[in-house]
């Protein structure tokens, strides 16, 4: 009897889900960028609106499948752990389409520590400034705030893929904070005289009577 060639894992997943093309589906595998090992338990989510999310966790083989409500442009957020968040490139999904993709995530070997776990927490370097007040928000007399989370690495630089918004009042403020955070420079956190990665949670307030705050010295 002739042998039937094994299906690639993603095609096998589609074969096990008959009728999956009756809706918009994103199927993929999350792997570690250096070793190509599958990453299990990764929280994969697509934010459809401010309070609407489709999410699932990857299995032991790093595979996930998300059923999305309609055709359109999407981005996925991959949360490997508290200090490792990766946002995918935008992709277009047609009606009744199935998109298959492999997602590479570089996972730092050193886990980021919270402020209470370090002896010397991160401190902003002299000259560090806060985000610019968005002109449209200022012209409309709109105030707001953003609570951001990011990791400062051992060189004192925020890791771009770690930036995450925990709370916000307006998306224009979010953009201003993201742009500013990536330009900030810090004195790295230390434990036992050794520089370590630290997870920072920082509020930024936009007030018409004062400049937005920067990370406390």
Taking pLDDT < 50 over at least 5 consecutive residues as the criterion, the unreliable ranges are 1-21
**Number of H/I helices:** 3
Helical amount: 10-25%
Question: How many strands, what sense, and barrel or not for the largest sheet?
Answer: 4 strands, antiparallel
Average pLDDT over all residues: 84
The CATH first-level class of the largest domain comes to Mainly Beta
Instruction: Based on the coordinates given, report the CATH architecture of the largest domain.
Output: Sandwich
Our Rg estimate from Cα atoms comes to 21 Å
Short description:
The chain has helices spanning 9-15, 135-139, 171-181, and strands at residues 24-32, 43-49, 52-57, 63-68, 72-74, 77-81, 84-87, 91-93, 98-105, 123-124, 144-152, 164-168, 186-187, 189-191, 194-196, 198-206. It has 217 residues and is mostly beta strands. It has 2 domains: 9-105, Immunoglobulin-like; 115-206, TonB (TolA/TonB C-terminal domain), CATH 3.30.2420.
Description:
The protein is 11% helix and 39% strand. The protein is mainly beta. It folds into two domains: 9-105, Carboxypeptidase-like, regulatory domain (Immunoglobulin-like), CATH 2.60.40.1120; 115-206, TolA/TonB C-terminal domain. The longest helix is centred in the last third of the chain and has 11 residues, at 171-181. It is flat, with a radius of gyration of 21 Å. The chain starts with 8 loop residues before the first helix and ends in an 11-residue tail after the last strand.
